[in-house]
């Protein structure tokens, strides 16, 4: 029996016994590109947003957009205890095409199976000078870290309520951070 199979079989027992869960460590190619974590849909769901835009400029899309945000389970467990994300935390923002036309739906927007993009935010002060790196994985291909001139760095620095992350949009995480005193209310 392989170690990974053994771990999968025993992990529920470890959870019951209070053992910690290992961080989902980012995997990089030899060229330093991030390999998209394909099991992210099994991670902890933090939030969903519809047609969110952080700019005064209209997006100009011909479809609705639904974003889903996930975090690796071990980082979530640590955050619940401290109100801070541990080094190595990975967030995945999955963009899906939304629509209002389908099946029995009369109003509202639902997400389709068509994935628009996959953005990954990795907290790693040893690898990244800014303390984190942002990646956009297209078609599940490895992605280069975005340059620090990309708007996501400045936006997360200016508006991230906890450690440059948008906890203000995570309804289960925000109260934890507020209680822990790690939430920046000015964001």
Description:
Residues 1-19 have low confidence and may be disordered. The chain has a five-stranded antiparallel beta sheet with strand order 3-4-5-6-7. A two-stranded antiparallel sheet has the order 1-2. It has 187 residues and is α+β, with helices and mostly antiparallel strands. The protein has four helices and seven strands; from the N terminus they run H-E-E-E-E-H-E-E-E-H-H.
Write the layout of secondary structure elements.
Blueprint lengths: L2 H14 L10 E2 L5 E2 L8 E7 L13 E8 L1 H10 L7 E10 L10 E14 L8 E6 L13 H9 L14 H7 L7
Antiparallel strand pairs: 1-2, 3-4, 4-5, 5-6, 6-7
Largest sheet: 5 strands, antiparallel
**Element pattern in H and E:** HEEEEHEEEHH
Radius of gyration: 18 Å
**Mean pLDDT across all residues, rounded?**
88
Sheet with the most strands: spatial strand order: 3-4-5-6-7
Low-confidence stretches: 1-19
> What oligomeric state is this?
single chain
* Number of contiguous helices: 4
Residues in β-strands, percent: 25-35%
What best-fitting shape do the alpha-carbon axes yield? globular
Query: How much helix is in the residues?
Result: 10-25%
Structural class: alpha+beta
Number of beta strands: 7
Distance between the amino and carboxyl termini:
49 Å
In short:
With about 190 residues, this protein is an alpha+beta fold. It has helices at about 5-15, 75-80, 150-160, 175-180, and strands at about 25-30, 35, 45-50, 65-70, 90-100, 110-125, 130-135.
For this entry, give a set of tags:
single chain, disordered N terminus, 187 residues, two-stranded antiparallel ribbon
């Amino acid at each position: 029996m392989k170690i990974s199979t053994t771990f999968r079989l025993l992990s529920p027992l470890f959870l019951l016994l209070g053992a910690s869960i290992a961080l989902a460590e980012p995997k990089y190619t030899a060229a330093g590109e991030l390999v998209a974590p394909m099991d992210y849909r099994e991670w902890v769901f933090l939030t969903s947003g519809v047609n969110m835009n952080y700019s005064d400029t209209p997006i100009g899309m011909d479809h609705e957009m639904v974003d889903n945000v996930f975090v690796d389970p071990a980082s979530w467990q640590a955050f619940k205890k401290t109100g801070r994300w541990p080094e190595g935390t990975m967030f995945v923002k999955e963009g899906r095409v939304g629509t209002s036309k389908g099946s029995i739906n009369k109003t509202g927007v639902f997400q389709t199976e068509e994935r628009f993009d996959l953005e990954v935010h990795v907290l790693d002060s040893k690898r990244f000078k800014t303390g984190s790196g942002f990646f956009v994985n297209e078609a599940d291909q490895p992605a280069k870290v975005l340059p620090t001139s990309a708007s996501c760095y400045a936006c997360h620095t200016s508006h991230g309520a906890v450690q440059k992350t948008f906890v203000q949009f995570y309804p289960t995480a925000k109260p934890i951070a507020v209680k822990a005193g790690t939430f920046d209310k000015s964001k």
